[in-house]
Design a protein that fits this description.
Length: about 350
C-alpha cells in the first residue's frame, strides 16, 4: 500500500495489534517497558482525525516489534474523543484542543495530557487555472472565513497576487461539521488576528459560522479535503498532511511579522521555537512570532487517565506512549507532522510516570 492510500485508510477505525511480550519482564529500548503489560490487553481510544494517520503508522510499526496488546483507535474528531473520555467509554483519547479546566473537572480518575506531535493547519483550495500559489494577507483570509469576500477576484485577494489572473468565481468555504480540534486551532488563530472574528464566531471546537449557501460542512479532516477536491472555487482548513497527500495547493499566509510564509514543515517547526511548555503541558500558539514562523501551528495531545483500575492496562498504555515518544518521532516528518523537540520529549516522558 502506498503512503497516500495508507494515510486515508487510517481515518476510519484503526484496529491494529500493538503489543507487549507477556513473558518478558524488562525493556531494552527507550521506547521500552514492553514486558510490563500483560497478554491480550485491549486499549480503546478515540478522537482527533488530525494525527490519526501518524497514530495509525505508529501502531502498525509498534505491532511489528512487539505482541500481546490490541489497540483500537477511532478517528471521530477531538470533541467526540473528549466526550468518550469523560464518559469512560475509552482508555485514552486524542484531541488537538487538549482539555479545558471544566472538562478535566468531570474526570474523577484524573487527567494526564501528553503532547505527542505537532502539525500545521493549512488553507487548501481548488482553483484549477491558477498558475501561481495563492498568497493571502491576514485581512484577506480572516474575511474569507467571516463570509465577507464573495469572489476570488476581490481586491483583498488581488492585492497580494499581482500578475495572477484570479477568476470571477464564487468563494466556497468548506468547514468542519463535527466538534473538531482542528476548528479550535484555526478559530483560536483567527480570533487572535481579527477582532471581528473574535467577537463573532469566536474560539471553539464548534462555532457559529456565517449562514450562507457558500459555507459547506464536511466531517473530519479527510471529509473537508475530499469536499475541496470536488468543489471548484473551494477553500477550507485542514491539517497539512491531508492536503499534501491529496496534492491540493495550499495558500501562502501572512504571519505576525508581516512576512508571507509557505506551509512547509521547516516553517511550521520555526513556529515552535519560541514556545515554552508549561507544567500542565497545554501550550498554545495562536499567532506565533518569528520571521519564518508559519502562522497556524498546534501541538496535539493524548488524553490519559491518571489512575487505571487495571495496572496491566496502565503499563501497556505507558509502553506504547514511550515508543511513540522515541522511535515514533522518527517517522513524523515523513507523514507531514513536526517531530517533538528533545526537551519536550523529555518533559512528556517524565509526565507519563504520573499514570498509575
Amino acid at each position: 500500500m502506498n503512503k497516500t492510500a495508507f494515510r486515508f485508510c487510517c481515518l476510519t477505525a484503526l484496529t491494529v495489534l500493538v503489543g507487549c511480550n507477556a513473558s518478558s519482564t524488562s525493556s531494552s529500548s527507550p521506547g521500552g517497558d514492553s514486558g510490563s503489560a500483560a497478554q491480550n490487553i485491549k486499549l480503546q481510544g478515540s478522537g482527533a482525525s488530525f494525527p490519526a494517520p501518524l497514530y495509525g503508522r505508529w501502531f502498525k510499526e509498534y505491532s511489528a516489534a512487539t505482541e500481546g496488546v490490541k489497540v483500537d483507535y477511532q478517528a471521530k474528531g477531538s470533541g467526540g474523543g473528549i466526550k468518550d473520555f469523560i464518559g469512560h467509554t475509552v482508555d485514552f483519547a486524542a484531541s488537538d484542543a487538549a482539555m479545558n479546566d471544566s472538562e478535566i473537572a468531570q474526570v474523577d480518575d484524573g487527567v494526564v495530557l501528553l503532547p505527542m506531535t505537532a502539525g500545521s493547519v493549512v488553507l487548501a483550495y481548488n482553483l484549477p487555472k491558477l498558475k501561481k500559489p495563492l498568497v493571502l494577507s491576514r485581512d484577506a483570509y480572516s474575511k474569507i472565513f467571516l463570509g465577507k469576500i464573495a469572489k476570488w477576484n476581490d481586491e483583498a485577494i488581488t492585492a497580494t497576487n499581482e500578475g495572477v489572473d484570479l477568476p470571477d468565481l464564487p468563494v466556497t468555504v468548506v468547514r468542519r461539521a463535527d466538534s473538531s480540534g482542528t476548528t479550535f486551532v484555526f478559530t483560536n488563530h483567527l480570533s487572535a488576528i481579527s477582532k471581528e472574528f473574535a467577537d463573532g464566531p469566536g474560539v471553539g471546537k464548534s462555532v457559529s459560522w456565517p449562514e450562507s449557501d457558500k459555507f459547506i460542512a464536511a466531517p473530519k479532516n479527510d471529509g473537508v479535503t475530499a469536499t475541496i477536491m470536488q468543489t471548484p472555487g473551494a477553500i477550507g482548513y485542514v491539517e497539512f498532511g491531508f492536503a499534501d497527500q491529496a496534492k491540493l495547493p495550499m495558500a501562502t499566509l501572512q504571519n505576525a511579522a508581516g512576512k508571507f510564509i509557505e506551509p512547509t514543515l521547516e516553517n511550521a517547526t520555526a513556529a515552535l521555537a519560541g514556545v515554552e511548555m508549561p507544567e500542565d503541558l497545554r501550550a498554545w500558539l495562536p499567532d506565533p512570532t518569528g520571521d519564518n514562523a508559519y502562522p497556524i501551528v498546534s501541538y496535539t495531545w493524548l488524553l490519559c487517565y491518571e489512575k487505571y483500575e487495571d495496572s496491566s492496562k496502565a503499563a501497556a498504555l505507558k509502553s506504547l506512549v514511550k515508543w511513540c515518544l522515541h522511535q515514533g518521532q522518527e517517522s513524523s516528518a515523513e507523514m507531514g507532522y513536526i517531530p517533538l523537540p528533545e526537551n519536550v520529549v523529555a518533559t512528556v516522558t517524565e509526565k507519563l510516570e504520573s499514570i498509575q
